[in-house]
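Q: How would the structure tokens look for this protein?
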Amino acid sequence: MEIQLGVIEARYADMIWEHEPVTSSELVKMTAVEFQWKRTTAHNVLRRLIDKGLFRNDNGLVTSVMSREEFYARQSKQYVEDSFSGSLPAFIAAFTQNAKLTPEEAQAIRQMIDQAEEK
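A: Here is the predicted structure in token form.
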């Protein structure tokens, strides 16, 4: 399932993930400061994020259905699928074509590969 977020929706989602569990009234206050939103805008955008399956609102308490990490992992996987026909090696080749990896980055990638092979 692909979930598309606009820039503002993504910033709002990040705000929720950072502060959860958070009440919808606290979100109204935070978005008034951060985005200069009125209460109705905060509730409308929250409703869109809930409808997209990211969050739930139980009696005014907002919590995530999907973690930030899970959401961005899905987005990354979808990007590789759409842009590189699902080929992770093609993505890595494109990513590293004009960039040199530091020894730390290379080691971290090797560890990720080792862990993925063990799954």
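The first strand starts at residue 22 and ends at 23.

The mean pLDDT is 91.

Upvote if useful.
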